[in-house]
Design brief:
The chain folds into two domains: 187 residues, Rossmann fold (3-Layer(aba) Sandwich), CATH 3.40.50; 59 residues, Single Sheet (N-terminal domain of TfIIb). It is globular, with a radius of gyration of 18 Å. The chain has a seven-stranded mixed β-sheet with strand order 3-2-1-4-5-11-10, with helices on both faces. It has a four-stranded antiparallel β-sheet with strand order 6-7-8-9. The termini are far apart. By secondary structure, it is α/β, with parallel strands linked by helices. The longest helix has 15 residues. The protein contains eight helices and eleven strands. Helix 3 crosses helix 4.
Length: 253
Amino acid sequence: MIYDLIASIYDKVNKDVDYSAWADFIEEIIKREYKNGIPELVLDLGSGTGSMTLELAKRGYDMTGIDYSVEMLDIARERAEKAGLSDKMLWLCQDMTDFELYGNVDVTVSCLDTVNHITDPSDLSSCFSLVHNYLVPDGLFIFDVNGRYKFENIYGSESYVIEDKSSFLVWQNYYNEKSRICDFYISLFEKCDDGRYERYDEDQRERMYTLRSLKRLLKDNGFEFIGAYSDFAFTEGSDDDERLYLVARCIKN
């Protein structure tokens, strides 16, 4: 699994992400839209190395982080221990389309286009159904997706290289506008103790979901759509944006 392999340099890949500003945005959404007082329990779905999980834990939330990569979770656990936040964390190694929790949560977040990695719409529907199942009535689901602009103009058929002192990563993209699928062909060269490099190759995919299709999937799984925004200033978003931040409310009879 490529995310096990690149776990050690994952944070370098996302070094420009302002998690503090993103967490401020999430808290403003909660302030505006959460109807049940002050939320306590938050699920971070596809938590990776725990950057957002930790940022929200610092703000007082009890966090559960779910990720399918053992290596990512190991890094997240170590970071939580160093920050003195282990008592506010529960880490679960599970598939986000087939996960189980010990109880309900007030808010679910999913950041950094995790949703785009679920390329089968039926699997995404299963994910949304589980999120709905584990949210309290009127709980919030806050997530982002890469928009059409990013798939067509940033991913496209571009190549990227990422390296540090011990790793060299080559990332080649091929986007099919008809299928809305972007294939990533990834080669990682990792330096061994004896100076040699081990090579690992992996293919990954993301799907571009239109705003209309996401609204339909949310509605079909019991959510009330609240809004889609193109930035942290709550500017109304569209399919032409690079990234969309979506908010939905869990409706239960």
